[in-house]
Amino acid sequence: MKLLITKGHIVDPSQGIDGIGNILIEDGKIKEVRIEPGEQRAKSKERKSEVRKSGSEIIDASGLAVFPGLVDMHVHLREPGFEYKETISTGTRAAIKGGFTTVCCMPNTNPVNDHASVTEFIIRKAKQEGHCTVYPIGAITKGQKGEELAEIGTMKNEGCIAFSDDGQPVMNSMIMRRALEYSKAFNVPVISHCEDLTLSEGGVINEGLISVTRGLRGIPAEAEMIMVFRDILLAELTGGKIHIAHVSAEGSVDLIRYAKKKGMQVTAETCPHYFSITEESVETYDANAKVNPPLRTKRDVDAIRRGLQDDTIDVIATDHAPHHMDEKLREFDQAPSGISGLETALGLSLRLVDEGVLTLKQLVEKMALNPSRILGIQKGTLTAGSDADIVIVDMKKRYKVSAEKFASKGKNTPFEGWELRGLPIFTFSKGKMYEW
Ligand code: DOR
Questions:
Q1: Which of 166, 199, 317, 394 is the most exposed place for a label (fewest CB within 10 A)?
Q2: For the chain, what is the radius of gyration of the CA atoms?
Q3: Is 12 a catalytic residue?
Q4: Alpha-carbon torsion 264, 74, 134, 370, what sign?
Q5: Sheet architecture: strand order including 162-164
Q6: What is the pTM of this model?
Q7: Is there a contact between 112 and 139 (Cβ–Cβ < 8 Å)?
Q8: Can you tell me which atom of ligand 1 is nearest the CA of 336?
Q9: Angle CA(397)–CA(408)–CA(358) in degrees, nearest 5?
Q10: Buried b or exposed e, range 336-365, using 16+ CB within 10 angstroms
Q11: pLDDT in tens, 103-132
C-alpha cells in the first residue's frame, strides 16, 4: 500500500524541516520526505485551505500543515475498571480526532496498573480496539498507595514506558528515592504528580481570594512547589530521570528553570488549561473547571507561558481526564477533578502560536518530539522508516468547541463554546487514515 501526501507545509523539528513538500508512505511506514526547494511557507499561506483527493493514493495537502502525529504522554483511558467514563476504544478515537497518534495512559485504573498482568491487558486491548498507539505507564507503588514499590522491572519488560502514581503523589521521600534509583537502573522516567497532601488535604480550588469568597477549601501553590523541588533534589541525588507532571504554578516554573540552569536532569509538562484559563473559571462553581492541580491566577498563567517560551517546560500534555456527567454534576466539593482534553489541546495550543508565545516548530516539539525523546520511543518524527503517524491540519479552519461532538465519553470541558483555530482533518496512525 502506497500513499503520497503532496504539497503540504511540513514541520518536523526532528529533521529541521519547515517547508513545502511531499511525504511518501508505504506499508504503514514513512518511506520518504521530500522538501521542494524554493517553496517557502509564506507562499503556502496564500493557498486555499481545501483538500482534494484523487483516488485513495494521493492526498493533496496544499495550504495545509503536516506534522508528525502528536504524542500525549499523559492521558487517562480509564480501562480497566471505569469504562463508564472512557474506554481504550473511545479514548484513542478522541486522540486521533485531536491529532494524536500516540498516547500514554496513567495507571489509576481499577485494578491499578501496578502489575504486569494489568499492563498486558491494556496492551492487548489497545491492539484489538485502539485507534492509535498506546503505551501504558505503570504505578510507582502498589495500589498507588505510596507505601510499597510496585514491580517496576517486570512491568517495564511487559511494556510500561514510564512510572507514575499520577492522581496521587508519592509522599514518602524514601520511596520516591528508591523509585528514582530503579528508574535509573531500568532507564525509564518517573513522572511525578507533585502535591504535598498535608497542605492540599480537603482543598478543591486554588488558595486565594476566590477560595475565600466562594467558601471552598484552597490548595496553595506551595503544595506543588515543595514536591517539585523535593523530586528535583532526589533525581540529583540518585541520577534518576524525573519528569514533572501538569505544572500549574509560577513557583514551580521558577524552580524547574533554576534546576535546569544548574544542569540538573529534569523535564516538565504543562497542560492547555494551565495556560488558557484561571481560577476565575470556577467562580460559578462549574465543576468542569475543577482539576487537580487547580487552575490558578493570571500571574501563574503568564509564568507558564514564559516557561513554555524559554523551553523550561518541555511538553504540552493533555492530562485527558474524562468523567461521567453525573459525577461532574455533583456539588463542587464532591465532583471529581479532571478535564477531557484530547479534542481541544491542539486548538488551545495553537493560540500560543497566534499570540507569539511559541513558534510552530516549538509547538510540534512540545506536542510530539520532546515527549517521545523523554520516553525513549520512536515517535514524534517523520524520518524515513518510522511509523506513518502523521496529522494534517487545516490551520485556517475555525470551529466552536462542542463537547457533544467529542469522540471521548468525557464531555467535561470548561472550553465549551470557545472558538478555536486549527483542525486536524486527516490523521494517519501507522499508515491507517482517519478523515474528519
Ligand atoms: O484532575 C485530575 N484528574 N488530576 C489528576 O491528577 C488525576 C485526574 C483523574 O484521574 O481524574
A1: 199
A2: 21
A3: no
A4: negative
A5: 70-75, 100-105, 133-138, 162-164, 190-192, 242-244, 266-270, 315-316
A6: 0.96
A7: yes
A8: 11
A9: 45
A10: bbbbbbbbbbbbbbbbbbeeebbebbbbbb
A11: 999 999 999 999 999 999 999 999 999 999
**Using CA of residue 275, residue 279, residue 282, residue 288, what is the dihedral sign?**
positive
376 vs 394: CA distance, rounded Å? 30
Pocket lining: 107 vs ligand 1, CB cutoff 6 Å? no
Q: How many residues does the chain have?
A: 436
38 in Cβ contact with 233 (< 8 Å): no
pLDDT digits (tens, 9 = 90+) for 21-47: 999 999 999 999 999 887 555 444 443
Residue with grid cell 493533496, as numbered in its chain: 60
Q: How far is CA 163 from CA 108, 135, 160, 426, in A?
A: 11, 11, 7, 32
Q: Is 165 in the pocket of ligand 1 (CB under 6 A)?
A: no
**Given its phi and psi angles, is residue 263 left (phi above 0), alpha (psi -120 to 50 degrees) or beta?**
left
Write the residue with the smallest CA distance to atom 6 of ligand 1.
Answer: 167
290 within ligand 1 shell (Cβ under 6 A)? no
Residue with cell 500560543: 352
How close is the Cα of 29 to the center of ligand 1, in Å? 34
- pLDDT, one tens digit per residue, over 51-105 is 444 445 899 999 999 999 999 999 999 999 999 999 999 999 999 999 999 999 9
357 in Cβ contact with 305 (< 8 Å): yes
Nearest to 338 by CA among 144, 106, 146: 106
- Rounded to whole angstroms, how far apart are CA atoms 256 and 225? 10
Hunting for cell 518536523 — which residue is that?
A: 12
Q: What integer pLDDT is reported at residue 55 of this predicted model?
A: 47
And the C-alpha cell for 393? 491540519
